[in-house]
């Protein structure tokens, strides 16, 4: 896209092309391929004993101007791992599947983790008709445009998955700066989104004295600084971000009367995350009171922290050891499909380093040897689960 980076938005032409490419890879590997009710692409190898499935994969969509590895690495590694296992060892004992999950990022529609939520039966009533993109296109119409029936979303639900393994880039600097080269994720941070509306008084930018103003944007700016200070004071892994802000009336010669922004607050510990939300809320109220402003703080999203399955973590640790790496146990500050699929299966995640900790940008990169190492460890874990159990 202009300015660099990738953009594969849900149900867009780029997304469709990526889905078709993954399906072609799966067919080439000899897997049984299907597209489910929301567009997740599955490749399956029947196990000699049947039963519940062992699944690996990640998402194929991206943020705007994103990198080449976020999500896509886990999809490509899944195909390669399963194809190599079947080629080397033949039919598995357990059902073994790859999945290219249709959406995780929410970059076109505000539907983060849509594909995983569909699998885990977490789609909200009326969501498919209610949600619209920036151009006003409904999620339902976007589905119809790529040959999917929005009335059939429930058909994507899976209740027969035993384990889900996701290989992903870390998206942070810990493995790259401190090592080792592989990380086993034990928990995924919970995310709270708080919509803050600051109300002051619009006035003429030239005629109203600075000392008499009730400037909503200045108040919001002070709140953004205070919010960051709260997270710094709490310490890692607390994070709090203001990534978007709009003002009214948004005219160069008018003192802003209204400012709206959204706080993204995350922590892996439930109690600490609750404290973080309370503290940033109180910081906004204190600043509003000091500046003679009104403020309203409303929760618009609340995803609790998720502990991943200890048994799968042990399998991944053994796989890393077999690859010659003693892995680091890690908490993920970023959200992932595994956090939703943990409600439907025993879920685990494996991290490889992100060079410089960069992600969600064109500079996102991982050394080729670390990609290979991660894929090898993933294949080893899948072999234990699907051939030896």
Overview of the structural elements:
The strands form three sheets. Strands 1, 2, 3, 4, 5, 6, 13, 14 and 15 form a nine-stranded mixed sheet that branches. A four-stranded antiparallel sheet has the order 9-11-7-12, covered by helices on one side. The protein has 389 residues and is an alpha/beta fold. Helix 2 packs across helix 11 (368-387) and helix 7 (216-234) packs antiparallel against helix 8 (270-291). The mean pLDDT is 96. It has two domains: 13-189 and 305-387, Aminopeptidase; 190-303, 2-Layer Sandwich (Alpha-Beta Plaits), CATH 3.30.70. The radius of gyration is 23 Å and the shape is globular. It contains eleven helices and 15 strands. A hairpin with a 5-residue loop joins strand 1 (32-35) and strand 2 (41-45).
Q: What's the architecture of the largest domain in CATH terms?
A: 3-Layer(aba) Sandwich
Instruction: State the helix count.
Output: 11
> Which structural class fits the helix and strand makeup?
alpha/beta
- Gyration radius, to the nearest Å? 23 Å
